[in-house]
Amino acid sequence: MSPRPIAVLLAVVLAVFGLATPAGAAPVQTLTWTAGNSTTEYTSAPSAARPGETTIVFENSEATGNTTGMSHTLTFDTSTPGYNHDVSLNILANPFDPANGRHEAVVTLTPGRYRYFCTIPGHTAMVGEFVVSDGGGDTTPPSVTAAVTGDRDPSGSYLGSATVTLTATDTGSGVASVEYQLDGGTWTPYSAPVVVSAAGAHMLHYRATDVAGNVSPEGMAHFTVVERPGDTTPPTVTASITGTQDASGNYVDVATARLTATDTGSGVASVEYQLDGGTWTPYSAPVVVSTAGAHMLHYRATDVAGNVSPEGMAHFTVVRSDTTAPVVSASLSGTQDADGHYVGKAVVTVTASDTGSGVASVEYRVDSGQWTPYAAPVAVSAPGAHTVTYRATDVAGNVSPEGTVSFTVVAGGDTTAPAVSLQVGGKQDGSWHYVGQATVTLAAVDAESGVDSAEYKLDSGVWTRYTAPVVVASLGTHTVRARATDVAGNVSPEAAGTFTVVAAPPPPDACPVSDTRETVVIGGVDSQVENIDTGNGCTINDVIAENAEYASHDQFVKHVKAVTQELASRGVLSTADRNRIITAAIESDIGGPPAAAGKRGHADL
């Protein structure tokens, strides 16, 4: 059975100004941020809020889409000009921490703008802001609409599932929250389109609240979901086990399992397997089993219609051909005195060989210490008598007898510690802060026995062996310390330095006067595609440029195809959205009258 990854308990660092809540009083609102597998954006985040006592919820868990065990922080900016700096909040969350990735804090918000970001190195693109407003006399509730989409049958029922998308706007204080209620259930915060797949008639109520506290009238969307007709037959899946077998039918050293699935209806959607009672795992390549012993492989397949095959089983046994342990030896090197003692240090080199299945690992321990994987010659510099014990294991699992080598280390003549220095480099702003990242470089010298190692410690982290310049991308003020050790064991005084990393300024807005219509509209034809920012301040409507001059309608359509192809290649547009925009361009009259309706149906999208 595959072992479950060991969850590393992560500390939750909370430093919040104004946490006190008057007795009996409740926070005026709850603001929720969520994170998942992305390192460039939060899964969901608020855009507006009301002033006063507020409950902050930050969840980074499997429930919010984090399937990799990745850590994220929710950190409020307390230094960038133009934002409120009266709340200091820094929450570190991980799906496997003691709170399962969900943390809360109570803060006091004041009118203005707040900026938030993730401090994990490599996650600095996860940044955003929200506005706190007292309403400013706004008494008009927001507007909220619902759009139901999905495949439909001739009676208008949705096949398999229906997706409800809610859109809210408020021209006064701004939208604070949107909620929905499905089939009389509880009111739920809306953060993404709602997919309803249960067969039957459904009623979805929805409402929105603005920052001033005005609540919209409840809207209603009524629709019916029916099961997709057609494929009700599960797929067929088989397994074949291959490898070299002995006279008893056991597989020698390794067995390979291959799964094959077919479905004559909707087609195979996925194949899974479970080895020796472990977790179900998607099958993408033959399963190689080399662990000696009896094994049971379960397998199943699912087709596009959702039909699941009966579980299949394959039972087999793997045995080892190699029963001979590897051979391992050790040698000593170093400068010796007249008594044969090693001056300053002794170096132990371990060598292992195996003519059968091959060496899998070599381990050693110094005196009564812990067994340690051997990767390079071991230098022992502590004065005194020592014994190094060593052993090797081959691929078949055979372990060699333990070997030992004993020796004595005496102090050498070098009593002078090495010198160490550090340098911080990178692009700096006018305040000498490093923009985006800083690079820390260490240098150590020793004129006698020579430098053995250099180490650094960043902020409150652990001492780490220095092998290459260290890049620090986490925003904020940092302290770095450095030290070096020479071959004789002398340790230098620590060198220290402090520097600050700030976020890189945003790129200039390429379209300061932008077309901000909600959807992409071309010559009055609404494509129903959201008119989003393409990444440089220009919306999709801006780059389509319907008001520019074109020699003909065909030239305009070619222009739209070119710019949408570029947006699709950058991931700004999906293929489906690109096709909708091109269709709207074809049906428009930009550049001249469009082609005949019969010809438009054959346009190359």
TrEMBL record:
Signal peptide from the UniProt entry: 1-25
Superkingdom as given in the UniProt entry: Bacteria
Keyword list, A-Z: Copper, Metal-binding, Signal
Classification via InterPro entries: BlueCu_1_BS (IPR028871), Cupredoxin (IPR008972), Ig-like_fold (IPR013783), Ig-like_OmpL47-like (IPR058094), Ig_E-set (IPR014756)
Gene3D superfamilies: Cupredoxins - blue copper proteins (2.60.40.420), Immunoglobulins (2.60.40.10)
Name of the protein this chain belongs to: Copper-binding protein
Organism listed in the record: Amycolatopsis melonis
